[in-house]
Amino acid sequence: MTREPGAKAFLRDERRRQAAVVGGGDAAAASGAGGLAAYGLGVRFGQVVALDDITLEVVPGELLAVSGPSGAGKSTLLWSLAGALDPAATVTGKVVVAGATVAPSGAREDTVRLGATLVPQGNGLATVLTATENVLVPLLESGVPAKEAMDRVREALGAVGLEDSGDHLVEELSGGQQQRVAVARALAARPHILLADEPTSELDHTNRERVLTLLAGLAAGGAAVVMATHDPEAAAGATRRVVLDEGRVRALG
């Protein structure tokens, strides 16, 4: 039997899962578990303005690219939406995730419960664990049964082209491979909301296209996906684009 490439098979199965959730009586998901928004969001670190009066909404089925120069506020926006902002920040405005108002800082457990997964810049992997373990441990900690968790791990690593690298320690992997492990960890969580901070910055052209296809497919399956990127080609493939500069929205399309 001819097998489908990992990414294609993952997207096919993910669309089926999302369709089952939306149409199958999961009240939280059907009521908009994939949506998120910021209203009048402002973030300061001392006298430094990181975000200034940001208002945007991301609906299920949408891939939003957040672009702009270094220091524009892209990472601050994603971390605010994830409820993971540095508590030292001074925050104004409001963040809403899956219909619930959440604090931009100190609320990471709440946003995880609401279905939001964050791929941080720098990947956030444990270097003393293998690629498989980095994807597996969060699933087990969230209560996914062991057999199902391992199935998800294999599926996700295959989708990013690392099906033969699961037993390698993270420190043995290249920067690009580590980045793909971080993406696989997010995919395995089956999020309604994915916040990806520069998820293709370390990737060659082939793997960049692979990851962008996966993110677009996740959105097509019903998730809300927000991707921060400095890469114009990556941003061009999004459903919609927001350009930040000095913490303000300079363009919205």
Task: Report on the architecture of this protein.
With 253 residues, this protein is of the alpha/beta class. The chain has a single domain, classed as 3-Layer(aba) Sandwich (Rossmann fold), CATH 3.40.50.300. It is 38% helix and 25% strand. It has a six-stranded mixed sheet with strand order 6-7-8-3-9-10, with helices on both faces. Helix 8 links the parallel strand 7 and strand 8. The chain is globular and about 45 Å long. About 7% of the residues have low confidence.
Average pLDDT number: 89
Low-confidence stretches: 16-32
From the 3D coordinates, which CATH architecture would you assign? 3-Layer(aba) Sandwich
Q: What structural class should be given to the helix and strand makeup?
A: alpha/beta
Number of strands: 10
What is the tally of helical segments?
A: 9
CATH topology: Rossmann fold
Identify the CATH homologous superfamily. Answer: P-loop containing nucleotide triphosphate hydrolases
The CATH class label is Alpha Beta
- Assembly state: single chain
Task: Write a short abstract of this structure.
38% of the residues lie in helices and 25% in strands. The protein is of the alpha/beta class and 253 residues long.
List keywords for this structure.
four-stranded antiparallel sheet, 38% helix, Rossmann fold, single chain, alpha/beta, 253 residues, 9 helices
